[in-house]
Q: What sequence folds into this?
């Protein structure tokens, strides 16, 4: 609908929007496509509530979004509840409580809305749709690879031709540095990928850190460089796990655009293994992110959250039903037939002076005339 | 999944639940079916936010759900926001602001979650899904009829064979009594359909009220009785509008089970014309309700909200993809082919001692063996 008025600036709180036709339909269809693809890959849907007790919602990995969680007083229990700001902790809770006895690996999927207390300058939205998958159970490279190719397949199902996946290993730098809080200047330098500052603050670790910085880029090149760096055993194990994950991805999806950044770790607050971000080609949009984490009970899991709102801006729009005007008095059977043929039928509520004019006024492309759908010119 | 543990009683606040497999999938598919049917009938989807400023959320017809609305303080604007307890007022807001210039009649659809502050004994849920349609514009019987047959068609699309629609005219009794608050005992008697008490408290209106009480039942019978009652002109106009709506429904859907209750009015707090409830046959479940109301700017509209959670309990379950186990190392192309054939593929992450046992352990009905999907016995 192109004839809408500009919104009154104070109509909705900042970061909340009305999706209008045809955007709301496109977003719903996109989410249906993503979840149907997850289902075809064996991920079974669950639907946690929008609201939980604070104590369960913010447990484990949920603590990372505590500041972004709206709180509500529950008049029934007199306890504090939170509105989810992220779905992954809820799925982890379901996996380790209601579905504790379900066979592992346990593959779950979800789609729904989240609320955030504050938007940022780059991402002002405070209601964010999420559609995702979680693979609960074995901590193996094949599991990390599976969620990545499943997410890439879901994006391909929406008509997005190509995506780029950036792999990181968030525990690697902390494993090398020990207590990262004792190295504030160095962490800042790593975060900015500032080689001069890393050299200045890296001390004895500077050569290793600079080599790791160099080992970022296209997966196969980066993995070769990573293999050549001399690393302490626990750090080497993490680097090898990253390489094994690349190999497992390649076995399933050889052509996926894959980069590695072993130095990146600050954006992945609760990740305990391989983490990732999925970008549009050229990185102009972030389609999703995820990685390995521990459930509240210590069980390992990995998952990816896709952002339908972001994907919607890039994905091809779904074909909508052409709109067919049925003049008042058109038999009900004609409408049923036209809908079965793929039209959206718009019924006249009263006789119109000119049916074709009325059809155009109602944004119809077709008019029911003489027992059939006739395309309207102009 | 039948092997889930019983939920810990205090895990979630009362009235909030986790939907597990396969229920969550069934609910999502059901909602997709409803909204696809709305779309085929020309209702275009909109998606208002979960949260709005209290001032807009509770304006107009939204005032009816003020007590059931959770409030949140917005840290950005320092104003109070509410989480929607009903979607209709939001659609009316969109229609009269963002879409004020869109052609009338304006047909809009929606689907989403609502939160309620308190559950009742009969309906303990505090998160309620809604899927509905609103027809904004002409106040004519054909519009009232259209939303009813559109809702009935959407329910039929879910596989529900038959529904029963009960029509009421909430302004009729108030138009007859004048100020209803001056007739508390009589209103209570009408509410209970207690003929003796109506006779006792009805005064000069008692014969008319008892005749209206008698004029409840199957639409055609009731309309005949309603036509024979002597009513003041404004009340007669309302009764005739109810009859005209029945005629308009019959023109579109002759076989719909239709009853009328002209005395019912207390459950329809903001309705200004024909209102309705859609029941499962036998009335064991309420699938939806709706009716005519005024938007905040005085524009007339009518709509119906369906309750997917209630429908889910009655509707036939969708066929799910049969689960096919792909032993570790199965080529990626085989999985893609099996998914295209309608299977949900479950990939082995490591070699299993016995592929068939592993497939059964993961609730698969089929195993990929010798290049094809083989059904598993037992």
A:
């Amino acid at each position: 609908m192109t004839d809408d008025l500009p919104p009154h600036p104070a109509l909705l709180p900042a970061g909340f929007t009305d999706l209008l036709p045809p955007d709301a339909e496109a977003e719903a269809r996109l989410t249906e496509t993503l979840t149907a693809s997850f289902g075809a890959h064996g991920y079974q849907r669950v639907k946690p509530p929008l609201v939980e007790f604070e104590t369960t919602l913010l447990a484990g990995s949920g603590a990372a979004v505590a500041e972004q969680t709206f709180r509500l007083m529950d008049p029934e229990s007199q306890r504090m509840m939170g509105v989810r700001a992220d779905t992954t902790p809820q799925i982890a809770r379901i996996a380790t409580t209601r579905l504790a006895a379900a066979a592992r690996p346990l593959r779950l999927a979800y789609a729904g809305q989240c609320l955030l207390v504050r938007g940022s300058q780059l991402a002002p939205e405070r209601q964010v749709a999420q559609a995702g998958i979680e693979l609960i159970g074995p901590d193996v490279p094949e599991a990390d690879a599976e969620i990545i190719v499943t997410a890439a397949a879901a994006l391909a199902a929406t008509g997005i031709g190509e995506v780029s996946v950036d792999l990181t290993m968030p525990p690697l730098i902390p494993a090398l540095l020990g207590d990262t809080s004792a190295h504030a200047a160095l962490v800042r330098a790593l975060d900015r990928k500032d080689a001069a500052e890393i050299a200045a603050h890296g001390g004895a670790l500077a050569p290793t850190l600079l080599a790791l910085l160099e080992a970022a880029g296209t997966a196969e090149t980066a993995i070769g460089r990573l293999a050549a760096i001399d690393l302490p055993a626990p750090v080497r194990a993490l680097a090898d796990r990253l390489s094994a994950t690349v190999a497992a991805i390649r076995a399933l999806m050889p052509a996926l655009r894959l980069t590695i950044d072993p130095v990146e770790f600050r954006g992945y607050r609760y990740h305990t293994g391989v983490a990732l971000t999925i970008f549009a080609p050229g990185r102009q949009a972030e389609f999703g992110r995820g990685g390995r984490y521990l459930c509240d009970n210590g069980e390992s899991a990995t998952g990816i959250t896709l952002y339908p709102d972001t994907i919607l801006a890039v994905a091809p729009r779904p074909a909508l039903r052409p709109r067919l005007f049925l003049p008042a008095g058109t038999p009900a059977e004609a409408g049923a037939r036209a809908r079965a043929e793929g039209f959206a039928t718009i019924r006249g509520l009263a006789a119109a002076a000119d049916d074709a004019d009325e059809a155009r006024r109602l944004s119809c492309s077709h008019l029911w005339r003489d027992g059939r759908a006739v395309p309207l010119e102009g």
Q: What stands out?
A: The radius of gyration of chain A is 25 Å. Residues 113 and 200 of chain A are 45 Å apart (CA to CA).
